[in-house]
Design goal:
- The structure is a single chain.
- By secondary structure, this protein is mainly α.
- It has a single domain, classed as Na+/H+ antiporter like fold (Up-down Bundle).
- It is built from 13 helices and no strands.
């Protein structure tokens, strides 16, 4: 338990630092927005490029793992979208952001340290595969749907063209495209440029968490309980269960693959989730959901580790 707390406590400290900076007036709302812009336009694209180029594609391509984790995550994404848009009457942009929070894990800053502690070196490969699913499928799906919702009232052709035009200016998808081109071509960035991208990537998590703390200052929780509850329960309970179900549907799944997938799936949502939410009018909901899921994940991660140990799914 103390090991898990050692992983999550720095996250709370960074969020708290942002909250204190905003509350004390040390940083204004405009300053916080500047940090968020830095993360969205520089640090996060660099993180995606590094994730796709750090390991050869052959090394991060385990078809069984990618299929099961991808199907489980897509199923939760679809359920989240159906709940928000179909059942609760939310807009497509809000539904896409809710679905994103339910189906994309914080693989790098929470999932990986927990998995490394539990299963050792294979955790790095699992992290890379999870980032492939998140950056190639889940995040683009959420952004495409959210952008499409802004074109209401236009014809199909106009919606497609305007959505595509907006997506071509999205820094996350630009970073994704660059990462894919580099990974497929085998090209290596020049040393100084690769180092600069790595430095920017390292800043993504801390800067995003600091910004989340600033967004929490002055947050009005009234009227958000249903949205926050849906996202938090979907991420911490539904996502791991869906990933487990996807593995159990496959013939003779490797216990190590199941353990790795569950350790990542039970983590809270990606650390930049509130920044995506802010782009589409869901900044308060996504920041509150991020904070609540990070706090609650201490319980769900501990329970998952105990269950995996109880059923002998963790390596000795």
């Amino acid at each position: 338990m103390l090991e898990i707390l050692a992983i999550t406590l720095p996250i709370f400290l960074l969020i708290g630092a942002g909250f204190i900076a905003a509350r004390s007036g040390l940083m204004s709302r405009n300053n916080m927005q500047g940090v968020g812009t830095f993360v969205m336009y520089l640090a996060l694209p660099s993180l995606i490029i590094r994730a796709l180029t750090d390991h050869p594609l052959a090394e991060v391509f385990n078809p069984t793992y990618l299929l099961a984790y991808g199907l489980g995550s897509l199923a939760v994404f679809a359920i989240g979208l159906a709940l928000s848009v179909g059942l609760r009457g939310k807009g497509l942009d809000a539904g896409a952001i809710h679905a994103l929070g339910m189906s994309a894990s914080n693989s790098g800053f929470i999932g990986y340290p927990v998995a490394l502690m539990a299963i050792g070196p294979p955790a790095a490969i699992f992290m890379a595969m999870n980032m492939v699913v998140e950056t190639l499928i889940i995040i683009p799906a959420a952004l495409i749907l959210a952008e499409a919702s802004r074109q209401n009232g236009n014809g199909l052709g106009s919606v497609v063209s305007q959505t595509f035009a907006r997506l071509t200016r999205n820094p996350v998808l630009i970073g994704l495209l660059i990462g894919i081109i580099l990974a497929l071509s085998g090209l290596r960035l020049p040393g100084p440029l690769a180092k600069a991208i790595s430095m920017l990537a390292e800043a993504a998590g801390p800067a995003a968490l600091f910004t989340i703390g600033g967004m929490l200052h002055g947050l009005k929780a009234r009227g958000m309980a249903k949205d926050v509850g849906q996202v938090v329960l979907g991420k911490l309970l539904l996502h791991p269960l869906a990933v487990l179900a996807a593995f159990l549907l496959l013939p003779d799944p490797d216990p190590l693959l199941i353990a790795g997938a569950l350790l990542f799936a039970c983590a809270p949502m990606i650390s930049v989730y509130p920044l995506f939410g802010k782009q589409y009018g869901q900044g308060d909901v996504s920041a509150a959901a991020m904070m609540a899921s990070t706090l609650a994940s201490f319980v769900t991660i501990s329970l998952t580790v105990w269950l995996l140990t109880h059923f002998d799914l963790l390596p000795v």
